[in-house]
Amino acid sequence: MKTIIIIATFFSLPYLDKLASITFADEVPPNIIFILADDLGYGDTGIYGQKRIKTPNIDQLGKEGMKFLQAYAGCTVCAPSRCCLMTGKHTGHARIRGNDRYPLQKEDLTLAQMFKQKGYDTKLIGKWGLGEPDSSGAPTKKGFDSFFGYTDQTHAHNYYPNFLWKNDSKFLIPENVVQNGFAENGVIYSPDLFLKEAIDYLDHEHPKPFFLYFASTLPHANNERTRAKDHNGMEIPDNAPYNNESWPTIQKNHAAMITRLDRDIGKIISKLKEKGILNKTMIVFSSDNGPHSEGGANAAFFHSSGPFRGFKRSMTEGGIHVPLIISLPGKIQPGVTNQVVAFWDFFPTFAELIHQKAPENLDGISFLPTLFGTGKQENHPYLYWEFHEGGSKQAIRMDNWKGIRNSLNSPLELYDLAKDIHEDNNIAKNHPEIIEKMEQYLKTARSESPIWKLTSSPPPKKKKKQMK
Fold first, then answer.
1. Are 75 and 113 in contact (CB under 8 A)?
2. pTM for this entry
């Protein structure tokens, strides 16, 4: 059995020309573990330039795997980004284009369903955000044989919940007493439960290959605690190893959450080694969007956006440019690549990897040639994003040109990412021909949605059920 580990991280280093060739045509396809961080910035790990937060396991994965310097999330916030990852469609075509409780529908094929069609065992641990247990978008209805975690992103804010979901039933945690979205005195920390679930899953013998989607909530903030109590929404049992730093407590907590995520990744990798399946597993590590400045945290404190401007909820690079590392020992040669990829590219890439037919209506392009150095790599004519909070925003990348429209009726801003990675100089007036070409792409980049319309005002909020 082959297992594939992918870790997502982006760098601006030269592309490594010589990669190992790979074929699984006559072999059992690899296992795949996709580790997704929540609101982790491009610059939050050592291998992407972080100086103060300790991430030794992610750094080692980056050294042993392929580091992507130009990888993009599906969106600048959680739910639509994860929808792009799961369905292979960008936010101009995805079912879910904003943070609200609209579920995937029956006709939306997910990565998990595609893996199941190939005979994989499929497991989701952590945060879903694409449908409640009683909806058409429940994880168990979208291809996962088993699920443990949060279905709703608001519920996932609380690191000390009084219940989680195990498949379609509540898994009660009576030790945590919750009021108004947080626990006064939390006892059971949900990331610890997720790690235990992952280790238990890997401890079992797997007669067929598996797809494990480990969607951690670290280092997202608990916004309910921030508003209601002590303005410290960075919930963690303790802030070791940063207890003695002279930083504000919230920043210690934020750093400790990232280091705890790194620790958990290290334990998963150690278990793969113990079971003798590390070289049969592909590991992917990435983040769902740029870093946050929520819960009292400050993205600028640790330079979490790296060399980019902006953070979560912005259409500048800091909001959508994410780390990506992909590792498969003995098959993917260590190195870095400047190949531009986005979340919607994973569906066709995985489909090609396991020799499974992908739907024809995807927005993604397989980047398997980049991973394994075989064949010619196809490139996107453009990448597209839209975002719907406080009105509609759009972004488009075409070669090294980046266009941003920050409100429905505003003109496109234009940046040359090759010369201005921080997006400081709007040069739209100097390049009307580029703006015209982008505008032509934008006319066909999206399909109309009854929910996610381009508008100067925010879409109506779907009433949320009270989590008890």
1. no
2. 0.93
CB 233 within 8 A of CB 221: yes
Give the chain's length: 468
Looking at the predicted structure, is the pLDDT value of residue 27 above 80? Answer: no
Helices of type H across 276-390: 317-320, 346-353, 368-372
Give the span between the Cα atoms of 233 and 150, in whole angstroms: 18
Cβ distance 45 to 293 under 8 Å? no
Q: What is the pLDDT of residue 460?
A: 59
- The pLDDT of residue 184 is 85
DSSP codes, 141-159: GTT-SEEEEESSTTGGG-S
Closest-CA residue to 450 (of 404, 388, 390): 388
> In the beta sheet, which residues pair with residue 166?
148, 169
Q: Which tokens in the block code for residue 420?
A: 């201005």
Residue ranges in 204-306 assigned as alpha helix (H):
223-228, 249-275
DSSP 458: P
pLDDT of residue 18: 34
**C-alpha distances in Å from residue 123, one per residue of 216, 281, 426, 445:** 13, 15, 45, 33
What are 303-327's pLDDT values in tens digits? Answer: 999 999 999 999 999 999 999 999 9
